[in-house]
Amino acid sequence: MSAAVSGWSGRVDLPEGASTRRWHQWVREPAAGSVPGVAVLGFASDEGVRRNGGRLGAAEGPAALRKMLSNLPLLDDTPLYDAGDVDVADGDLEGAQLRYAAKLAALLDAGHLPVGLGGGHEIAFATYQGLAMHLGERRPRVAIVNFDAHFDLRRQDRASSGTPFLQAIEHAAARGLPLDYCVLGISASANTRVLFETADQLGVHYVRDDELGPLDLPARIAQLQEKLADVDVVYLTFCLDALPHAMAPGVSAPSARGVSMEVVEPLLDAIAATGKLKVMDVAELSPPLDRDNVTARVAARLIHRVTHAAGKAAKIR
To answer: What is the mean pLDDT of residues 278-291?
Structure first.
């Protein structure tokens, strides 16, 4: 099947068929009544990073991610959709977040698993708002699981890439939505004391990057499984600066340490295996700062892995 949307192209293996397909051959635009599947939705934004004083370039992230996803093999017959991009016009981050949220809520309403392609981590408040729109008057217990070197709990005059999870926590509290916030990969050298104090005051569960080595993995998986056992819905968000600089040079704020893929991937598998994953996004990919598309390739691999694992878990559940 040829791609029905722009931005997708790649190798075609012969003989063409289900066992040789790649993402670019399978992806198409969602339409009313489409069979539920994985639906990517881009948030082409630098505005949050700009407001937070970071290095710019994340607005080019969605296009770079589509390019790297294009050639990945299909591991099953789950439908793939591309719902397009939301851009930030004239610095109106808040308006763009609401537009993105409305599109994401519509995808959730249609039964899809939305995958946000960032863009700075300001995508997270947009994703959360979309999930809240979808839930409407329902009040399930929601967990936001964030892989990140930073808490992103800043209190600032203007929202930015450093504020989305404080915004989400306050929004959820105001509407009576039970919300747990978990962060894996926190760097003690990248967060001020007030951010740790804020996290403690809000009851945030966090694990530092130096507590996420290979020897720690079994205990951390068990701990995460215990945390997620009591929730109904999981929103997974992955800031690429959670990875070591060698694995993710193309980010706004490169990590001095990070968490290795050998640890990250089993943790992602554990999240997907719950069958509760409702939405995910990947943030802070900045192609102008990337080297040989290393960061984009890693991000695409993570999306590829999680969406496949989540699809298997949903069928089992």
So the answer is: 97
Q: 96 and 126 in contact (C-beta within 8 Å)?
A: yes
Q: Which of 134, 115, 65, 70 is nearest to 306 (CA)?
A: 115
Q: 3-state class of 147 per DSSP? A: strand
State the Cα–Cα distance between residues 234 and 275, nearest whole angstrom.
Answer: 9
Which segments within the chain are labelled E, that is strand? 27-28, 38-44, 80-87, 113-118, 142-147, 179-186, 205-208, 233-239, 277-283
The β-bridge relationship of strands 233-239 and 142-147 is: parallel
For 277, what's the count of Cα atoms within 13 Å in the CB-facing half-sphere? 31
Mean pLDDT, residues 198-218 taken together: 98
Instruction: Give strand pairing partners of 207.
Output: 184
C-alpha closest to that of 285 among 39, 18, 66, 91: 66
Residue 256: closest CA among 265, 266, 246, 264: 246
Mean pLDDT of 225-242: 98
Report pLDDT digits (tens) over 173-195: 999 999 999 999 999 999 999 99
Task: Give CA angle at 180 (175, 184), nearest 5°.
Answer: 145
Cα distance between residue 90 and residue 260, in whole Å = 37
Token pair for 41: 């939705």
Cα distances (Å, whole numbers) of residue 172 to 26, 113, 133, 165? 37, 21, 11, 10
Q: What is the pLDDT of residues 81-117, one digit of tens each?
A: 999 999 998 999 999 999 999 999 999 999 999 999 9
Q: Phi and psi of 84, rounded to 5°?
A: 85, -165
Question: How far, in Å, CA of 145 to CA of 218, rounded?
Answer: 18
pLDDT band at 12 (very low <50, low <70, confident <90, very high): very high
**Whether this model's pTM surpasses 0.85:** yes
Calculate mean pLDDT across residues 235-260: 96
Residues in CB range of 84: below 8 A, 6 or more apart: 5, 29, 41, 42, 103
